[in-house]
Amino acid sequence: MLNVKIFSLYPELFPGPLDIGLYKKARWKKIWSLETINIRDYSKDRHKTVDDTPYGGGSGMLLRADIIAEALDKNIKKKKKEKIIYLSPKGKKFDQSMAKKLSKLKNLNIICGHFEGIDQRVLETRNIEEVSLGDYVLSGGETASFVFLDAIIRLLPGVLGNKFSTQEESFEKHLLEYPQYTKPQKWGKKTPPEVLLSGDHAKIKGWRLAQSEVITRRLRPDLWEKYNKKFKK
Ligand code: SAH
Question: For residue range 101-122, what is the model confidence (pLDDT) as tens digits?
Answer without folding.
Answer: 999 999 999 999 999 999 999 9
